[in-house]
Design brief:
The complex is a heterodimer of chains A (114) and B (112). By secondary structure, chain A is an all-beta fold. Helix content of chain A is 0%, strand content 54%. In chain A, strands 1-3-8-7-6 form a five-stranded antiparallel β-sheet, with no helix packed on it. In chain A, strands 2-10-9-4-5 form a five-stranded mixed β-sheet, with no helix packed on it. In chain A, β6 and β7 form a beta hairpin. Chain A starts with a strand and ends with a strand. With 112 residues, chain B is mainly β. Chain B is built from no helices and eleven strands. In chain B, the strands form two sheets. In chain B, strands 2, 4, 5, 6, 9, 10 and 11 form a seven-stranded mixed β-sheet that branches. Classes of the chains: A mainly beta (114), B mainly beta (112). At the A-B interface, β4, β5 and β9 of A face β4, β5, β9 and β10 of B.
Amino acid sequence: KQEVTQIPAALSVPEGENLVLNCSFTDSAIYNLQWFRQDPGKGLTSLLLIQSSQREQTSGRLNASLDKSSGRSTLYIAASQPGDSATYLCAPTTGRGGADGLTFGKGTHLIIQP
Amino acid sequence: NAGVTQTPKFRILKIGQSMTLQCTQDMNHNYMYWYRQDPGMGLKLIYYSVGAGITDKGEVPNGYNVSRSTTEDFPLRLELAAPSQTSVYFCASRSTTGGKLFFGSGTQLSVL
């Protein structure tokens, strides 16, 4: 059974800092891995998707890396802004073509202080 | 483009009542999922479907049922509601070939 751990569980920093959020997973036979953002009372929004054959993906100030063999992924947020405040969740997909869904970590609750 | 639409947004049930959570998507996605999210516990997969007429159990299926008669709709049925089913329920979908998972805005359910 896939287990996903995210560290830290919570983080509060002043704006402008560069941040690293960590995700580890126990089953390295993944199809892909996604990072999501969740705002309070809202659904999840996919930020980045990394296929198992890729090492990293970038979108604006966000960069996600994947080390499949060691079961680790990191989300790097550059020049953080108060609008980045949210919970960030990591979710690898296992199974045949991702049919049986993703396994989610509990998330990192991020607060960016103005 | 509406994406994934869930109704209702909020609901309070009494113990033993039944209800159906509705989910529809307009992206022609074959894969659809139901998750529940409890505080501090992350998201747990309840049921999923890889296409019309095909459903399968996830990690926490007990107390729930699903059907998938069309590509667009994937309703979740709660029979004999229990306090343990108090949670936020999310429906999600994605294309057959994998890719980003799209979520609905959720249904907050309380069973009292």
